[in-house]
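WARN retry 2 of 3 for item q-0093 after timeout on previous attempt; input resubmitted unchanged.
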Amino acid sequence: MKLRLVRALQRYVLNPPIKRLFGLGVVPPGYALLETIGRRSWQPRQTPVGDGLIGDTFWIVAEHGLRAAYVRNLQAHSRVRVQVRQGRRTVWRTGTGHVLGDDDPRERQRQLARTSLNRRLNAFVVRAMGTELTTVRIDLD
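OK item q-0093 returned
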């Protein structure tokens, strides 16, 4: 029940305005845009995620784990793009995604939360709305 409620809230209320801002070239603080390839459609799929960029690695704690569509897409096609803020503009970075089943997602959130207030807020929301936390690492080119 929680999963369906959270998915509907994200799909129809939270994600559309964030995607619109990205479309205008504005990166909301604390966010990035992940682009995967649909596992069945082969079409690009874009999903707002917390900004987990640390050097040349992008970290995501997926709140619905392997049930998240973008995680399943990433498992089927590991090449992805991430749109992040770089100074005053946004850039797309390509990379290869990996689902880390042996990583502790709560510890990963604690590590990320130490780096900024936006990441602390994101970690709180992910834990509150999450049903099955899973860590995703994207090694950027």
